[in-house]
Design goal:
Elements (H helix, E strand, L loop, with lengths): L6 E4 L1 H18 L1 H20 L18 E6 L2 E8 L2 E9 L4 H12 L1
Parallel strand pairs: 1-4
Antiparallel strand pairs: 2-3, 3-4
Helix pairs in contact: 1-2
């Protein structure tokens, strides 16, 4: 018997991240690479929707709140998410080489 999928919601911060990621990849590597990357990201999301505990707590977010933020890696990208009740909330899509804390500070400053 297959596990049921969580509902998923991509938050505005993740939409910004995916737009930035797409622009960079298309500009640097082309549309074919973006299509492959996008497919891998979708596969990772489907996996997390089925097995939400499979991700791990990003070291940058350890001790933040109740450690309910997790990440899953997809190629050179990370997807930062949180599960509440029966919903997967996707907070960020970000290149693994970027400074996550600096990015989070930038996002918080934008929201103020």
């Amino acid at each position: 018997m297959q596990a049921s999928l969580l509902k998923s919601r991509i938050l505005p911060t993740a939409r910004i991240g995916i737009d930035e990621l797409r622009s960079y990849i298309v500009r640097t590597f082309g549309w074919d690479t973006w299509r492959q990357t996008s497919a891998h990201l979708q596969e990772a999301i489907t996996h997390v929707r089925t097995f939400p505990e499979s991700g791990h707590v990003p070291s940058e977010l350890e001790g933040f709140g109740d450690d309910n933020f997790r990440q899953v890696l997809s190629g050179k990208n990370r997807i930062v998410y949180q599960v509440r009740d029966d919903t997967l909330y996707i907070h960020l899509f970000v290149d693994r080489r970027r400074d996550l804390l600096a990015l989070l500070h930038r996002i918080v400053l934008r929201l103020m």
